[in-house]
Amino acid sequence: MSSETLEFQAETRQLLQLMVHSIYSNKDIFLRELISNASDALDKLRLESLIDKDLEADTSDLHISLEVSAEDRTLTVRDNGIGMSRDEVVQLIGTIAKSGTAEMLRKMRESKDAAAKQELIGQFGVGFYSTFMVADKVTLVTRRAGEKGGTRWESAGEGTYEIEPVDDAPQGTSVTLHLKPEDTDDQLHDYAADRKIREIVKRYSDFIAWPIRLGDSDTPLNSMKALWARPRSEVSDEEYHEFYKHVSHDWTDPLETIHMKAEGTFEYEALLFIPSRAPFDLFMREGKRGVQLYVKRVFIMDDCEALTPQYLRFVKGVVDAHDLSLNISREILQQDRQIQVVRRRLVKKVLSTLTEMRESKEKYLGFWSEFGRALKEGLIDDADNRDALLDLLLLPSTASGELTSLRDYVSRMKEDQKDIYYMTGESRAMVEHSPHMEAFLAKGYEVLILTDPVDEVWVERITEFDGKQLQSIAKGQVDLGATETPAEQQEEFAPLLKWLGEKLQDDVKDVRLSSRLTTSAACIVGDEHDITPTLEKMYRAMGQELPRTKRILELNPTHPLVTGLRSAFSASPDDEGLVETAELLHGVALLAEGGELADPARFTRLVADRLARSL
Ligand SMILES: Nc1ncnc2c1ncn2[C@@H]1O[C@H](COP(=O)(O)OP(=O)(O)OP(=O)(O)O)[C@@H](O)[C@H]1O
Ligand SMILES: [Mg+2]
Asked: Which of 201, 239, 498, 509 has CB 3.0 to 4.6 Å from 221, enough for a Cys bridge?
């Protein structure tokens, strides 16, 4: 097989474009990316050779070496790790397997401002492609451990790359960058200078567990200390932060660092981080999650989902468990009792760290705005930690534009107020202006405004906080004391309510008088266990078939439209126009809560007719 020219996958091409025209100002990080890939390759080879005794690989001096040539203006990063087969090169370097790439690129294209773009690309992590920020040509030579022939790959980062077999490739991978001219104004430094390389390695890759050598020197540039194994007092914040960037591929410092060590029957060390901002794929089904698992300093796997629950998927870091088998699979991990113990402790520790973080308001608000939505999922999935999670909630309410904790809400409750009131909906404005609010606002009761889709689900699971019931203002009967409708009023309205119930039977299951309305004529409420309209919409959007939920029409007995309808009905119950009025009343109530009319054309025609008659 001779040399072939292949095209990059479309998304890769777009990403490369961004790299070539380098939108990111800190170009030094390309080296961190290459060293991180080399380190991964060495980890993989070590693990594979421990498991597969027949693998014909040389593991005697695993290391990373850097070579610079000032004359040729090249920098080479070489490892003697696992290497890649030809197919792997095409697969791994020619395409981006990450889920959400297209989505990320679309957002990139749409965002005008450069800072926002940087932010996005930083969240995405560009790995190998970051080399094109500093090089106008990249040559990669690789041979997979155990295989005979090697592969040479070369590209200028434009549309295509060349690939050809080579006979004399050493085991592992070398990446040679043909460097762009130095341009310090653009933060493009001289990466063919020893001094610069030393500085970058020390800064970004000091904790890499493999020796990183420069030129012919055998003395590694890095200290190689596994950060998590060192005592906390000996590690600087800066070192923690760089390590975080290494494991997360984030470009900003973490918000919080958690360093744990457990001794005794089951020994492990954990170094966890809470990021400052959410990754782009936090809410994508195939998004990256979980921490890295090591066994006695040997890297075992990335994204170890057995160690953290789904709702804490944003926590990054490393767990080094001492007594596990190197051979352990993901499936076995899920069931391992010791792993479950570790997981429980990690969760407790993360939650207690967040509880402490609440002391500094700004910081916690920052955390909440990035990860609050994910944390709420814990209220559904993690019954053991429900109380801690409830205390971590921050929710919008009618009290002010600020978020409130449940505890603060309770402390503001009126003396005669029994329950914690909330309403779910699609937006703050919709909830705030909904007719259901009227009586609550009139009484001065605060109502929580829940507009995250996940809110619809957790409120169904949580019945109380601090001995107070959580009560939806759009469901069930409300008991607001004195506003209860008197018996004679009930009697007066009984025939009208019955008639309306019959006329509207396709749309509602009951018509009754309301104590929650002060200014609106009507509203629609659900029974205690009815699914909310927002949730119904969400299920439909996900393609689920649902029977239509009929809800209850509540009327305001003091509203002129309602009293007028009652008089008209008792005067001539068979009047054709009354049926239309009933229909309009129902439509108005539906619109007020942001609902959808079954037949909008008919509704507008009825309204227009009435308006015409009133002129
Ligand atoms: N030195 C190397 N040796 C062996 N395989 C490599 C090497 N460099 C890259 N690869 C392969 O190419 C893939 C793509 O690398 P890239 O750095 O772009 O992404 P990544 O390392 O998977 O993810 P990220 O760097 O964003 O965490 C790697 O997953 C790896 O399989
Ligand atoms: Mg990488």
From this structure: 201
